[in-house]
UniProtKB/TrEMBL annotation:
Its main location: cytoplasm. The lineage of its organism: Eukaryota, Metazoa, Chordata, Craniata, Vertebrata. This is Cilia- and flagella-associated protein 299. The keyword Cytoplasm applies. Keywords: Cytoplasm, Nucleus. It is found in: Cytoplasm; Nucleus. It comes from Oncorhynchus mykiss. InterPro entries: DUF4464.
């Protein structure tokens, strides 16, 4: 049951954000940027799981889930027609 909830949460992430960078940016605080002074470094720390307020999701997994969500959306759309 918990695995289903985790998968649903990850699916929500990929539909909420257009790009992986948007997803990473959503987990970076202004305080992070103040101390790090480098947005790319802050993104790397989130990607590695050292910073961030949510789920750690690798770029490949994000893009795979994004493609699957898009394919699902397109198949539902074609079934409606």
């Amino acid at each position: 049951m918990e695995e289903d909830n985790a998968a649903a949460a990850l699916d929500n992430i990929v539909t909420e954000f257009h790009t992986y960078e948007d997803f990473l940016d959503s987990q970076i605080t202004s305080l992070d940027l103040y101390y790090l002074e480098d947005e790319e470094l802050a993104r790397q720390l989130v990607e590695l799981g050292y910073r961030g307020s949510g789920e750690v999701l690798k770029r490949e997994e994000f893009e795979t889930r994004k493609a699957a969500a898009e394919a699902s959306r397109l198949s539902k759309r074609s079934q409606q027609k």
